[in-house]
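Honest question from a wet-lab person: if I give you the sequences of every part of a complex, can you actually get the arrangement of the whole thing, not just the pieces? Trying it with mine:
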Amino acid sequence: MAPPVEGQARPIRLADIAKAAGVSHGTASNVFSRPEIVRAEVRERVKAVAEAMGYAGPDPKGRLLRAGKVNAIGVGTTEPLSYFFEDPFARVMMAGISEACDATGAGIALVSAANQEKLAWNIQSALVDGFILFCIEGGSRLVDLTRERRLPFVALELGFHDETISAIGVDNVAGGRLAARHLAELGHRRFAVLSLTLGEDRTGFVTPEMVRSAVYTGTRDRLAGYFEELSRFGVDTAKVPIFETENEQKSTRAGLEAIFSGGERPTAILAMSDRMAMIAIEWLTARGLKVPKDVSIVGFDGVPDGALCDPPLTTIAQPITEIGRRAARMILDFDGAVRRETMGVELVVRASSGPAPKG
Amino acid sequence: MAPPVEGQARPIRLADIAKAAGVSHGTASNVFSRPEIVRAEVRERVKAVAEAMGYAGPDPKGRLLRAGKVNAIGVGTTEPLSYFFEDPFARVMMAGISEACDATGAGIALVSAANQEKLAWNIQSALVDGFILFCIEGGSRLVDLTRERRLPFVALELGFHDETISAIGVDNVAGGRLAARHLAELGHRRFAVLSLTLGEDRTGFVTPEMVRSAVYTGTRDRLAGYFEELSRFGVDTAKVPIFETENEQKSTRAGLEAIFSGGERPTAILAMSDRMAMIAIEWLTARGLKVPKDVSIVGFDGVPDGALCDPPLTTIAQPITEIGRRAARMILDFDGAVRRETMGVELVVRASSGPAPKG
DNA sequence: GCGAAAATTTGAATCGATCCAAGAAAAATG
DNA sequence: CATTTTTCTTGGATCGATTCAAATTTTCGC
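Yes, you can. This is the full assembly:
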């Protein structure tokens, strides 16, 4: 009779403990999950056996299947994972999500992937009770993929036409207005807009028809807000250049290049993100243009970095942390309903905006 | 005969699909996980049925139990979850971890908890293949808890006497020396040390005996490095005040208060973290002391913020991102061995250190 | 010391998939 | 057309726990 193979050390299961301690599975299970209903003597015996055999405790993989709930929420994006730790907007949002998760003891699983195929797989196999989606560029694909899991999920940003999915975002029209009014009241009349993308995969100047057929309604609404207010001040919005760019340095700079190589230079820039606004400040400063003496800039988002840059950024602040908290709670307390929440925004005046230059 | 209860909508299982499509559950499973071995006609039929019934695809909970591997690594800390998104050191580390995870398509699960009890539960039930531990204060408890899971894990920082656990950290003695030599060469002879804690739950001035019996060897080694080098320059290290504090504002300020209320004020401060160093700069500046004209400061860590503060911080830079990458790879390519890696550090001279004031 | 009530323990059923040896069907060969 | 080969399909075993109704043991009151 061959001795049992040593080396391969199958991890010890609860059943092994039960057998060794001479009790049923049920009792062994109770020793760990509801120790108070097991007689003290038996409990100690089983624990001793477990200890002696080097049992690691009930494997969550097994428990999970039975219990159904993972107690973790997934946060998804199409950006690389490091986005969560590097992007200022994402970080503030994550802090809000963290807060809600900490309060209930839930975990956070970060889901992302380099390519589309892996993204699909990672979303399909994420062990979570629901998702919060950072819908940046390529967001609709992310939503489609997530929808297939048939788990609760919330999109951050209302920038989708689809009213059947839960989302939390801000009042983009109001935000656009606040920014435009602020600059107009400072006397500015020549504007340019650094816009986020209106649809997938395009950058460059934007025509009014393109605005009307925009896929991302968030972008469209901010534009609408800008223009509504500018019109009220008598600005001919048809002449305001709108440059659509990705939210990063290279294409934003290209946009600035394009805007400032035109004939009539703007005295005020409406930027749809703080990131863009800060890139603009840097670009202008490097070209000898003073902010806000020559050009005023108003951003959008209200990330903490905006207060630290030079000059500090005037911006439309979103309640980012609160959005994160609410998104997390939506998943944690999911009740089957589709919810769409619109949060207010606030104009934060700092030093990147000032009176329009004379003449 | 009562109709089946509608409302409660038990989610559809693979077995339901199999039955509805008239195939075995084995075949149904193959349709999703290895479609190429199923006859095209059958495959399409099953897929159609799945679609029609609103099947969400194979539930990862079920798959997991069979497969064994989660394909995610857990990152644990005793700090609240928001620590990962707010602390500069943690963020750079996480970026490194993210990079390694992105490369293999693994996910990241953040594990933390407000209180000890929940922490234990969260570690016990985290669905991960291994852990990376941020061992800040209270780290040994975290390690003990994690060890019980009997999964691979790595401690970030070698600050433990226990050689049986895998860890990655830096050469603290060398780092201490570099910092001390830099200041000594600038002519400084009156020093003070802002130290991280030597053991759990204590702050205040430290005696040489306490150093010898330090629990956290990382702290001890940095001190050793400082003193070795200072001795070489003829400084009487017995007279150098060492104030042990938490890595946060309140207790660090208390330390500064204590140090600067003493008789002979130091002209140079050796801080064991950039955080402390930056708090010190702020504190000194607020008191009208110029950095580095009156007091020079050298930090430790090399976080990006250090380059941005005013004046930019001279520091001992750790290869934080690389440590993160390696830690993640250790878990991802776990082979059962205990590994302890020591990384080099580098002196980064910026503007917070300068020649000792005359007299 | 007896029966009822309370406290424990048992063991089969279940959670939702994947795997694999064996059987069945289809295709290839002579 | 019979036989061999190849390709699919089947259904039981398994992953590691929890749950719950029923059986058993203890405890309690009198």
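Two things worth pointing out. Residues 23-27, 30, 37-39, 42, 62, 64-68 of chain B lie near DNA strand D (CB under 10 Å from a C1'). Chain B touches chain A through 49 residues (CB under 8 Å).
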